[in-house]
Amino acid sequence: MGQETWENDGARSRTRWLGEAASAARHHGSKGNREMDFWEHLGAVIFDMDGVLFIGNRLRAGVIELVDRLNALGIDFHILTNTGSSSSTEIAAKLDGMGLKVEARRITTSSALTAGYVAEHTGAKRAWTLGGGTGLSQALEARGIEALPLERMSMEEARTSAASIGAPIPLVVGWTRDYDHQLATRVLRLERAISEMYVASEDRAYPGDDGLMPGVLWLSASVAALIQKRPINPAKPNRYALEYVLRALNQPAARVALIGDSISDIESGNQAGCRTVLVLGGATPRTQVVKLSGEAVPLQVIEELTDLL
Ligand SMILES: [Mg+2]
């Protein structure tokens, strides 16, 4: 019920071959075509989080068993998430509450990535922020950047800060439920105090308990239009995201499997040279798989993580 049953018009020969290879590997074990054996020469695994490890507040089938197996085999793994409003410590606690034990050092949020990118590329000591919560402000502080949250200052305070700083500084936008007309007005009037715009994610949607929820894109698109800047997004599918985690894993990309539920995960992994596994049932329905082409085509498609066990 997985790889062998689907076909792709855009990349038919590749996906059909992969499907057959995966099927053979699963059904015949070491005697089959092992091109697609997930575990062969596996150096490390990078997991997307939302939609892969859990959906809403429910762990997906096979997550605990897969992590146990990686631990037992001594195979390193890392979680790379476009969630940025919680810190890695808060995320580790949330996973623990669902029954999955992962150390915070194995979790990289999009806020940590964005803070790293801003620090490495601008050398800024202060940045305006909009949304992103404590995850973003802590990530910026960890990189020596003072966060100036627009939602927590009045227009007058923002103007005073801008005047005292002098030169324009970066604006970093993360996820929030609280963007409204008043905040949009503040952003518009601060246009000249903003040097570049960074976003912690460009995800259109993420899976919630009762269906899809708007991601950061609805907010970042509005802000970008207001200040007339093209947002820079260091998170997936930007190459920076995978390079950042591959540096931490210290493994060649070809030995690293990336498991994701969205097309940006797969594009990101393919561009970095990782082995890509698309797990259905999260952000990507089976009906969308047939439309994929180029870098968006995963090496393997599974229904559940249990298919890898
Ligand atoms: Mg996801």
Largest sheet: 6 strands, parallel
Quick one: CATH class of the largest domain?
Alpha Beta
Span between termini: 14 Å
Structural class: alpha/beta
Strand/helix succession = HEEEHEHEHEHEHEHEEEHHEHEHE
Globally, the shape reads elongated
Give the beta-strand count. Answer: 14
Q: Please name the fourth-level CATH homologous superfamily of the largest domain.
A: HAD superfamily/HAD-like
Instruction: Write down the overall mean pLDDT.
Output: 87
Q: Which ligands occur here? A: magnesium ion
SS element count, helices: 11
Q: Major sheet: order of its strands?
A: 5-4-1-12-13-14
Uncertain runs: 1-35
Roughly how many Å is the radius of gyration? 21 Å
How would you concisely characterize the structure shown here?
With 309 residues, this protein is an alpha/beta fold.
What are its keywords?
single chain, 309 residues, alpha/beta, Rossmann fold, 6-stranded parallel beta sheet, 4-stranded parallel beta sheet, 11 helices, 14 strands, binds magnesium ion
Characterise the protein shown here:
The structure is a single chain. The chain is of the alpha/beta class. The protein folds into two domains: 3-82 and 237-308, HAD superfamily/HAD-like (Rossmann fold), CATH 3.40.50.1000; 111-227, Rossmann fold. It is built from eleven helices and 14 strands. The protein has helices spanning 12-28, 63-73, 88-97, 110-122, 133-142, 155-165, 181-189, 217-227, 239-249, 263-272, 286-289, and strands spanning 44-47, 54-55, 58-59, 76-81, 107-109, 126-130, 146-149, 169-173, 194-199, 205-208, 211-214, 256-260, 275-279, 300-302. A six-stranded parallel sheet has the order 5-4-1-12-13-14, sandwiched between helices. A four-stranded parallel sheet has the order 7-6-8-9, with helices on both faces. A hairpin with a 2-residue loop joins strand 2 (54-55) and strand 3 (58-59). Helix 4 runs parallel beside helix 5 (133-142) and helix 9 (239-249) crosses helix 10. The model is unreliable at 1-35 (pLDDT under 50). The site of magnesium ion has 8 residues, from loops.
